[in-house]
Amino acid sequence: MAELGPYLIIVLAGVIPNEASRIAAVLLSHRVDERSEVFAWIRLTATTLLAAVVSRLVYAPAAALAVVPMPVRVGAIAIGVAAFYLARRRLLVAILVGEGAFVLGAWLFSAR
Amino acid sequence: MARDAVAEGVRSALALPAWIVAFSFLGVGSLARDAGHPLGAAIFSTFVIWAAPAQLILYGTLASGGLVAAAGIAVGLSGIRLLPMTLAIWPYLGRPGQSLLSRFLFAHLIAATTWIDGMRRLPGMPAERRQPYFLGFALTCLTLSVVMTLLGYVLVGTLPGPLAAGLLCLTPIYFTISLAGAAVRVGDWLAIGLGLALAPVAAEIGGGDYDLLATGLIGGTLAYLGDRVFRRAPAEA
């Protein structure tokens, strides 16, 4: 049943842990204090996790991305972040600028 | 009228938010392929998880050789942010006498994009328009995101080198900017900085199984402690 494997992984490691929070919220009758210290810790841990995954995708990337030199990968992200602030926090503009910088850099500097 | 409220939700989603969120799923689709999952599973994941960060953590962990259990714990931690979000929006979204299944389905549609719009628009809306408006908005976002998941998956295999690489780099670019944009406190910046800096270190010394999860737990705790120290500083009133 190898073809069912990915679906099983998505349900076990994706749907169940993720949906648990939505379901718990619906079932909880009383308010949970979202300003509590535990929530502050969870929120920061989740932010760190996301940043860690981003870092991993850039540091040890997929094959198609690995042919693009590290400075191009990191530089494009830095340009995207800079564009976000220069474009008055417009997300779409910033992403397009970062992507544009990346594709240009990839085209110029990729190992062939 | 309900149909009219649904249409209003669809329109406001298409005005911009649905496109932005769908963009992140373009990256999710390409990652799913990289993790070796079939196209059907990638689309399935967007429908049933409907949280780009969770999918990113899931596929990122799997692609880097992490254990399914580690991925599940990490996804659960990232999903907890949905708990206070759902609680906060529920007074505007729940209806008295609503069945449990219907409540779960509405709760499932709560994600960052639908939450932000809902919190802004629903309170000022007549109660009977809220659910249809939210359905129109959320299902538009979800549909577009599913299409983009498919597109990302297919394109990363067919586009020429630099463009395929660009698709794989879309996720890091998108989420780094989003994280920076959402950061308000010292702790947020510490969390972002520690996550970015510690992940490669953890990969080198830990390697594989639990290192992303460990990075999140250690970095998140340090960020939390740093935030507490800063909060005690007299500068903050």
Give the arrangement of secondary structure elements.
The complex is a heterodimer of chains A (112) and B (237).
Chain A: H1 5-27, H2 37-59, H3 63-66, H4 70-86, H5 91-109
Helix pairs in contact in A: 4-5
Chain B: H1 2-14, H2 17-34, H3 39-48, H4 52-63, H5 68-79, H6 82-93, H7 100-108, H8 112-121, H9 127-158, H10 161-182, H11 186-205, H12 211-232
Helix pairs in contact in B: 1-9, 2-3, 2-4, 2-9, 2-10, 3-9, 4-5, 6-8, 9-10, 11-12
Describe this protein's structure.
Chain A is mainly alpha-helical. Chain A has a domain of about 45 residues. Chain A has five helices and no strands. In chain A, α4 packs antiparallel against α5. The longest helix of chain A has 23 residues. The mean pLDDT of chain A is about 85. Chain B is mostly helical. Chain B folds into two domains: about 160 residues, no CATH class; about 55 residues. The longest helix of chain B has about 30 residues. At the A-B interface, α1, α2, α4 and α5 of A face α2, α3, α4, α5 and α6 of B.
What gap, in angstroms, lies between the N and C termini of chain A? Answer: 38 Å
Largest interface: A-B, 71 and 102 residues
Shape of chain A: extended
| Oligomeric composition of the shown chains | heterodimer
List keywords for this structure.
heterodimer; A: 112 residues; mainly alpha; 0% strand; extended; B: 81% helix
Care to give the gist of this entry?
The complex is a heterodimer of chains A (112) and B (237). Chain A is mainly α and 112 residues long.
